[in-house]
Fold each of these.
Amino acid sequence: MKITDMTAVQLSAAIKVGKATAVEAAEAVLSQIEREDKKYNCYVTVDREGALAQAKSVQEQIEAGTLTGPLAGVPVALKDNLCTEGLLTTCSSKILHNFVPTYTAAAVKNLKKAGAVILGKTNMDEFAMGSTTETSAYGPTKNPRNPEHVPGGSSGGSAAAVAAGECIYAIGSDTGGSIRQPASYCGVVGMKPTYGTVSRYGLIAYGSSLDQIGPLTKDVSDCATVLEVLASHDEKDSTSVARDDTDFTSALTEDVAGLRIGIPNDYLGEGLDGEVKTAVLQAAEALEKKGAIVERFDLSLVDYAIPAYYTIAAAEASSNLERFDGIKYGYRAKEYEGLHNMYKKSRSEGFGEEVKRRIMLGSFVLSSGYYDAYYLKALKVKALIKKAFDEAFAKYDIILGPVAPTTAPKLGESLTDPIQMYLGDIYTIAVNLAGLPGISVPCGQDGKGLPIGLQMIGDCFQEKKLIRAAYTYELCEKKF
Amino acid sequence: MSKQYETVIGLEVHVELATRTKIFCGCSTAFGAEPNTQTCPVCTGMPGSLPVLNKQVLEYAIAVGLATNCDITRYAKFDRKNYFYPDNPQNYQISQLYLPICRNGGVEIETAQGGVKTVGIHEIHMEEDAGKLIHDEWEDCSLVDYNRSGVPLIEIVSEPDMRSAEEVIAYLEKLRLVIQYLGASDCKLQEGSMRADVNLSVREVGAKEFGTRTEMKNLNSFKAITRAIEGERERQIDLIESGESVVQETRRWDDGKGESYAMRSKEDAQDYRYFPDPDLTPISVSEEMLAGILAKQPEFRTEKMKRYKEEFDIPDYDIDIITGEKPLADLFEATVALGGQPKKVSNWLMGETLRLMKERETDASDLCFSPENLAKLIGLTERKEINSSVAKEVFEVMFEQDIDPETYVEEKGLKTVNDEGALKKIVEEVIAANPQSVEDYRNGKEKAIGFLVGQTMKAMKGKADPGTVNQMLKELL
């Protein structure tokens, strides 16, 4: 088996028994990037020298027996909104075109401790705002399954890199579906953990109350393995939760007997592509055959999730992105008159259209006189959505549905109508508003050969149920 | 001026808390370090960094709230105040608007008429300080020092309950003492660890509605506050008398010129777009936490004054001065505990200490000598091992650098000579050398003996007890 076709678990096992070395692994993936990335543009930065140096050091530690974990020596790609000390971190924005962080994100530190070899930084929608990776200042990423189509977003570079064998696994972030939706479009596994499971320290914030870091992998075993390494309680993140149940790989069992699965009717209604619907319902059937109890129910409030989400995320983003002002780092306009003009020109020139749209939207909903009508109301909707999920989880272990209404659209189709693009997030964003874990697993493809994603949502801290169900489903698929 | 006017004043007081580290990160708050050496990704607002509340800040804020009779908010939050300025690295300040930690308090002050009145406290909230901008005239550029960025502050917002500069000063003194006693801050106006903005309006006596107010900034001393209040009162009355109206605006006081000028008016007031900071979880103040802080509250000034009156035989005036500065009260109590006689300890504090503080223009909080050394010095004088002028000399050195007076006296050979034979020899020499004074004394000029005592002390290089010398002279003459 080619190294670039291996999963992380397979590759680390091979390295462990001496069938491959970490350096060979890094070299194999780096040459894959060299060959393929001109086509797909998955990466903003490839750190060839850094990766080889890390691989060499990791290999020595593996041989010395000091590094024994299942990610030791395995090359990984990081979304370009995760701070990496000494390595360019742009958020795919012109405003951070030259930003080299002075510190490394907590989640990345966890990976490094486990012996991960960092290949570089993947392309994304600018500041994670977008659903197609087309809002990047460094050009769009293309879907390796069909380069005329988008890879999804905002973690499109990460999902595409996994699909193209340009990394063994990748890390993304999910604020409204930014891991699950590109995973679905590219035919890989992606998981957004419960809010607070992975430290946000060093993740350049978009919507702080919604952002969560998670894995994009080739299969469910890798997903559980990577999440186990990413998750940790971090005193530097006040929203980080101390959990003692992060042994996610223990849930890799083929067992869904008695598992109660609810499919919201709201997730199968208008706007859902027929082929996607069929694939999702077939997946539910497969789980039912394995002993799960599958029912339909009404979740309600789904229609309110999008306006609530875009109000809250934009409000937080408008404040989070204020620090990008051309003063301390990043892009500064060449000509300006005085401080105010410098701010205005640097930000007008440095940010792209979608980011400016959300900054304006966020500033508006927080401004005096509108705060109660928009921002406060959105918070109330958020609380009601959480309550609706609580009621659903009193009856079901897992909520099942599609990840997105359609398969990956063609490049250039989405940006012309932002509202339409926002509506594409309908099945993923409620999960972020409620802080829940959600997983996307491939469940077939449409007539054009584009992958379809199955989404499973769990109650807070119930990642293990999702992993168990996803693992079981994956095994059924492999038997076909 | 025919009409009678009343001044209405409310204060916004910022107090820098005496925590070792900053409010949202572990950086040091120590003053005077090289620019940008006490910084990290959090207090420089680097992308991806996150704030974590320093618990000590919360405890101090609650302690001040309890001491000023506030309700403590059991479920409080931090909010972001959004505005662009280079000293503010995130371009938002983390503060509290919607659910501040303390509300509805008040302190009692004495009025000029000798009565007591309560000044209400609307709220106390916690927030972070900004960095410091330094303009480099030579290079024509501005530099930012983020050492101060993230230093914890509380803002104490009073009700518009004060009616004169005297009341304002009394209120500020009261706050300063309470906070100093808590150890929450040294509250130095000159150094900026306590800053007061004055909101002032005037209205005709008897009017029910408040007039339009202005906010005065940059007040760095009690004197400046007093002058600014007088100045602003007159400016507003002049406007009203001449038929113009007061504009709601922020003004900056120039103490050198003795006048203020407008900084910004209400029209260009910014919309700060406050909203709860999603990076900080809400604060819930538990019953245990509150009880713990209450248990640690110190003895405040009023109680202390009462206790001093009962325990120590010292004048009310001394009690007033000593308890008026927490460091003095601490020194006093510690020295007495080490065996210093209260009145003697008080004398040293009221006399030499205050004299030297005035001379050197230093604060009580700058006092460096230890109670141990003061007790030793008192011991030396009580045992008559040194005389009072030597003691003052030694004290002055102690005041500078906290030396051990016993070692110092020993090393410098300043001990009083108590060897009667040696002393007698010198006294006899002085008598022999000054026949005129001896003659005068014998002729009934009592004063002449003073000269002889002086001559003896001089010959002894000050190391004699003047009382003993006097006694000996009388006997020999």
Amino acid sequence: MWTSFDTWIVVVGSLCAVACALPGCFLVLRKMSMMGDAISHAVLPGLAIAFYITGTRASIPMFLGAALAGLLTALFTQWIMRFGNVDRGAAMGIVFTTLFAIGLILIRQAADHVDLDPGCVLYGAIELTPLDTVSVGGFDIPRAALVNGIILLVNLLFLTLLYKEFKLSSFDPDLADTLGYSSGFLHYLLMTLVAVTTVAAFESVGSIIVIAMLIVPPATALLLTHDLLKMLIIAAAAAVLAAVTGHLGAIVVPGWFGFESTTTSGMIALASGLIFLLAWLFSPDQGIITRQFRRDLAPPVPLSEPDTGTS
Amino acid sequence: MPDLSDILEVLLLQNYNTRLVVLSTTLLGIAAGLVGSFLLLRKRSLMGDALSHATLPGIAIAFAVMISLGGDGKSLPALLLGATISGVAGIATMLLIRNTTKLRDDVAMGFVLSVFFGVGVASLRMVQTLPGASAAGLESFIYGKTAGMVQSDFLLIALVAAVASLVSILFLKEFLILCFDDGYAAAQGWPTIFLDVLLLGLVTAVTVIGLQSVGLILVIAFLITPPTAARFWTQRLLPMLLISALIGGASGWLGAVISALTPQLPAGAVIVLVAAALFLISMLFAPTRGVLPRILSQAALRRKEDRQHFLRAVYEILEDQAGEGPVANRSFPYEALFAKRSWTPSQLRGILRIACREDHLEPTPPGRLRLSEPGFGEAARVTRNHRLWETYLIQYADVAPGHVDRDADMVEHILGAELVRELEVKLGGPLPDQTVPPSPHLVGDR
């Protein structure tokens, strides 16, 4: 049965998905897709320390701690890359596993006093978001919808204002530097946006959606277009589609196998994967099947040009 | 707080259970250090990341299958078999995306990681609702749990780790070619695709056996951190492999021991932190490529350059003073140095301080400077080398006389005695000792 609960879950999921997909496009273009994964693991110590200091699970300190940890991940990765001459992937891997290990230890230490379970932090619970509401202008809307909506607006604002700069520095950082747009500054701005988005999103809906939405819709869009603006729009659309079908799938699919229910976040990730699969197979100019068809339908190329007699 | 006898008991592996845990994590560290080195050199470190996340659906599905067959779903080999199958499916997806689209490696890895992990979490949640099944233990694959290991688990881990290490050593030469130049390897007729698949198979094996003890997120560190740390100590592959295996083994051993002594610390996390500490030490202090030794050697080179520039500037001042006559060691005004090179006063003060320490300067009235006897000899030698190199560049490298000073400036500091002798022979026989040839270009004020 579809209830207002389900509507809210889909709304929250869509807001979060689009908020992630937009900066995700630039991550994918900059060959930094794994940054979202790294940041979402590395924020664990930030959450734990914020909890230690404040002693509560209040949102704001947790959010600040996590965002700080996310930024530190980007910063440490850059340092190890630069000073140690280490490949970006390896640097990222070392930083996020180390931070995750620290977070795990801190959380185990705190586990005696409070329910701060890493599973809960990482998976979130999008199903429960409609229960936690705030009143805005007389309407009760879920806090998660508000948070993700704000993050989406912030991302939209930055990406619209600095569209040209981000575009240039993603495709040709050296040219951007020469023209006077600091690509280093834009890099850290993008990292900040990703960290803030990641943290805000997974505090409410869990990190799986975040990692998937940062990468998969942009990758889908990249298969369908070569134009940055179209890519952003397609990625956002694919993200919404994944959120809607993912939640539907979470209600319907377990029944096929005789199970009761499953997590919406996992199914949203799966849905985005299936949308990617469709684009992979049927993209107008790059799809596997489309290309195969075109090859079969194309007229055979003559071995030598027939003499047209124009000479 | 553990007392001394506890520590000894753990260190000497007297407790049976501790012995299993410590030995298996050590073996795992060694295998991961070897296999991870090839991944690092192939710039695919994060492949382990994607792969380990991709094992989760297999674990959940293997569990569900075992339950439906009437078991309790906790057989480690079966769970690991499921993990291997879905890990291989993940790798296949990754390679397919890379080969059939224009998307790059990182996107393919991110895609596999997130979608497979999502499916894994979704199916884990589904099978947890199975009647009569407690899937609580499955979560331990995500964060690692050494405490529950029994002897057969240990044997499995030890066997796979040993086989993986052995295969990496047997295929050392092939992997080496693959890592450094896969195009060349293919052109030489090596089966690069087979080798790539074999390497990924080894990575899968190490990841899967690491799931049980350190968990699927922290096993990534086992594959990445030791090789990256080892890379700072050497430029050659064989020593790098050895050091990497050593660091991996040491992290596994130390981490397991520490966590055995303080039970509230999860073993996986401690192992990763030990590895990270070893990485930090390597990055800062390793003599070959470490950060501090590099900074120190750069500073030493800069000091050497400053010293030689100073001596040559003094020699040229003395030449100016001597005019046509022989160059003699006289005192000269301090300000004359500024005309020779664009030093700031504080830079020059630093250089003079070093020159005093090396006994190149003699006490003089204020405002004037005078070289000591050894200092003068050194100045003549430095100037001579500089001019030999300049003359060589003009005669053999067709560098215009006006530019030669600058080019020579950059190279002269690393001229060895051997090279200087060769230059002398090239430029018309050895010069008598201490003779400084005239400059091949105008020595003017800058």
Amino acid sequence: MTADANKPTDADKTNDAQQARQDELARVRYQAAVGTAIVAGTFCLLVGITLAVAHFQRTTVGLDESEELNNLRNALLKVSDPEDRKVIREDIRRRDLELRQGFFGRRAFTKTGGYLLLAGLVVFIAGAGLAAACRKRLPTPLRADQRKPAIGAQAARWAVTVIAVTLVAGGVFVVAYYGGAPDGEAPDGGQAVAVKAPPGREEIRKHWPRFRGPDGSGHSAYTNIPTTWNGKTGENILWKTPVPLPGENSPVVWGKRVFLSGATEQKREVYCFSAADGKLLWQKPVSTPASRMTDPPEILADTGFACPTCATDGRFVCAIFANADIACFDVDGRERWVRNLGAFKNSYGYASSLNIYRSTLLVLVDQGTPSKPLSYLLALDLMTGKTAWRTERPVSSSWATPILAHTAKREEFITVGCPWVIAYNPADGKELWRAKVLDGDVAPSPVYHSGTAFTVNTGAQLTAIPTGGSGDITKTGITWTAEDGLPDIVSPVTDGKVVLLVTTDGLLTCYAAADGKLLWEHEIDAIFMSSPGLVGDKFYLMDEKGVMRIFITAGGYKEVAKAELGEKSHSSPAFLDGRLYLHGKKHLFCIGKKRTSLTGPD
Amino acid sequence: MPTDNTTNNKTTRRNLFRKGGLAAGAAVVTGTAATLAAKGRSDGTVWQIDPEKCIQCGNCATYCVLDPSAVTCVHALKLCGYCDLCFAYFSPGFEPEAGIEAPAVESQLCPTEAIKRRWIEGPHYEYTIDEELCIGCGKCIKGCNNFGNGSLFLQVMHDRCVNCNECSIAEACPSDAFQRVPANHPYLLKGEDH
Amino acid sequence: MPILVALFLMPAASALGAERFALPKFKSGYELPPLEVPPAASDALEYLDVAALAAALALASYLALRARSRRALWVLMAASLVYFGFYRGGCICSIGAIQNVVLALLDNGYAIPFTAVAFFVIPLAVTLLFGRTFCAAVCPLGALQDIVAVRPVRVPAWLDHGLGLLAYVYLGAAVLFAATGAAFLICEYDPFVAIFRLVPFTRPNAMMEAFGGSMGMLILGAGFVLVGLFIARPYCRWLCPYGAMLRLLSRASKWHVTITPDECVHCTLCEDSCPLGAIQKPTTDLPRPDRLIDRRRLALLLILVPLLLAGGGCFGRYLGEPFSRVHFTVQQAERVRLEETGQITGTDDISDAFYKTQRPREELYAEAGAIRGRFDIGGTLLGVWVGLVVAVKLIHLSVYRTRTDYEPDRATCLSCGRCFKYCPVERKRLKTLKGEPTTP
């Protein structure tokens, strides 16, 4: 052992020479070890510095980050001459090869350097360890009377205290530096409170939550709706606000907010206006990866990209567009979810409006042809946008909006399509009854009044179907049918006594609701796109030019008033307390007497 | 306390403490072992990427402790459209050019030319991944997801992965796409479940 | 309302189905090749690991307690370093297995590998029987530090006591982060795994790009190695969370290494032999401190215990919130929240990943809130734990113990065997000492 070399022994003086030789040997060994350690240490230092310099002098990090190469590629894209292309192509290939060689060369360099560094370290540790072993100090014990008392415990207690205080200080630093929500707002606090429960039926009746009102039949819950206004003179126009993007959808209103959507081929937006003054409260784009990557759908210009009307329940507002993007926002404009349903195979463009039923959003996707129907009824969870249920439908493309009927014993979600009228349970999508009474491109929506649903389409018939049935009731369950004055776009309206049909070219046909007896016909020289509404006993019917005719049916057509919006419109009116909202081609109008105040909760 | 014969007492007390500690320690260790055993002996887990969560950030190529990374691209051919103009194969803006048999670096997206293209029939080409060349950068996958069927995706290759206790790519993953999966079902493949 | 002026149907849209481009119907007889992925590596090596661990532990205990051979222990230690460290990449190790065990105990969905259980339990059991022989010759992290400890200086006992607390704090923190599913701190900040894996050298790419990752770990490792040249085993003594558990168990171990094979002769030769300062001197030749002061101090400390626990708990609760930001979901929720409230414009990878899932934000916020709740509890418990550790340490330092011989501190002694050859009694046993051992 090397330590033994220095150890005093009881050897004789004659061993001195041998001792000296041993000492000499130990010295040489020590020097050799120290020398090795120094050389290896220096070597490590040099390799380390070289590696660090190479590391910081590098110009590219990955394989594929050369600005130069990108520029060359872009240049190649712009050039069409084959000879020039060839030159640039060769240039790219050469440069790319250089870059790759450089990259892999640098990697090999680093790898070699790393192993050299490691080997150097091993030698250094070995040398230094050997040197240290040569110079190992022997213990020099003290006698008992030379020893000092240990100061251990007291100092250790202080050290523990200091460490504990340091830990607390570290903790304070962590809390101060990393603690506290960004800008003092807790991510889980504030606005992200629990979502309110869905509104009840009575509450819904106070608002205008969807296309054609709470029951989807155009019935107003209020009778104090103005009958005179003029968009040109401003008479009874409370406010009018421009709508940024075009759309054929009708306004929906909940409390102090009015919602619309608008879209072009490229952009889709949802708007919220203040009911008080028409101010645009928020405007949110809707975009999904699918919509960004696919071509816009081919549609009819008159349908537009934002034909379906939004739906709201006072908590959320949902909108769907022709490119199958569907979005849900809370009423303050925070996007809740957005998804794309996959391109619609629906000529003219998607037009069916949305419905909110409790906590689901019901979407009718009728597409495909009679020989190959691809239609389905979809329920999306309002909170997440995830599919709650989906029911396949045996019908081809249609453009009508289903209605939710509260019949005597249950709720029925009545859909029209070609050729079936089908009522579903809105809770789970199970079919309740169906009737084969339609044909062609179905666009007029059904209406419902006290136990009877009325469906109509041109080329088919007007049919009165009592609700509450089950199975196929085509042969057994139909009250009456009629075939005159069938509309192709405009939905019918009923007050329970009469059913009124309006064709696009202005033929009004009135039937008795009970037995289908034709009561009267009336022709108006105008084009009608907008569906009529019913306020008390007054019918509100607007033509394409924005002229609203207000009339009653007492043995015939009796016009009560006529009001002009001064702007073209295809949308259907929304009736609220003392107010009427209309969506013109360019503006959103609020019509009402100046003194009427807003009612209803926010 | 400390008189002459207390030393023995103290020793006894210390021994008593020690025995108590030993019993307690043995109880804790066997208790833990028993609890873990009662949870059912498992074959353990391995790391895998959920293709649905992956956003192709590129960390897989650079954060793995292996070189090249244990993550490579996988191609589910049954989801592939066999397109002529493949957005996973060609650099943006480039199209299959007439007169060039093998498109090379100027028009290819893959930095290591790991995607092989083979003509099948008509306008249809088969694309396969050379796993030896693939570095798991995910560039091609972005192209395929954005414009194609999304038939390409990243997976941890278990003949390469050393199954670190805490995967260093998982630590760096910005989309939480790395997850532990049962070792007997070590892959999350697209197009295989349905 | 749509206008249906012309009743015509658009040409049928492109192919139907989930994909944008349908799988072509091949006419040339092309067969779709199946999707092939390499099978998982055989787990035979894992069983070998467990067998090697058990064998190494048995051998280490034998060499330390029976054979009393430092040299043989060194060889075993080097072999462990090569096998568990460089060959198996330092993963999975007993230290990291703490986290797997904690996660398995708290998360029923986590399937703990058999090897993790074995690596966690076996060294604990062996320590309970023979003391920390695991640290002496089996743990690759310890072995690396032991080998580089070229010229260890003596660290004053008081500093050793103070810094020794950190290991318990680290243990608590590692358990907290593993239990909440936030991170495996021990693995993430293992200073030696980068060296074992030779990551920056075999993986120059990683060295270049991931400065905060493996390169940072390498610098940390190099720092520990450099410090380790002069201070023996800094990680083992002051940071290792598994070592903290072993300290407790080793105190109660059934058998333990002794400095002398027989009766201590109080020669004082071994006094400075331990680089870890784990040799305790006899108290017999020193005056007994004032017992009245000692008792008062002890009483004061005992009163202080509940205060320390309560204070730690209260303080720890505040730490729950910043700590929760280590969790991915909390980070994601905060980022999404900032974007939603318009405090940040634009998205980043983390928020993009969330939007891709199309989940509602509230769900994410609720999830993050639940995790934060767990961190509030966990932070409180961590604070209580640290308070308890400090209190126990202070009390431990304030209880006077009589020792008649030189003996190893069972908690800090690693059974490395360095002191054996300093003992004249041992030398006599080995017959390398002429004459009789004496007391100065």
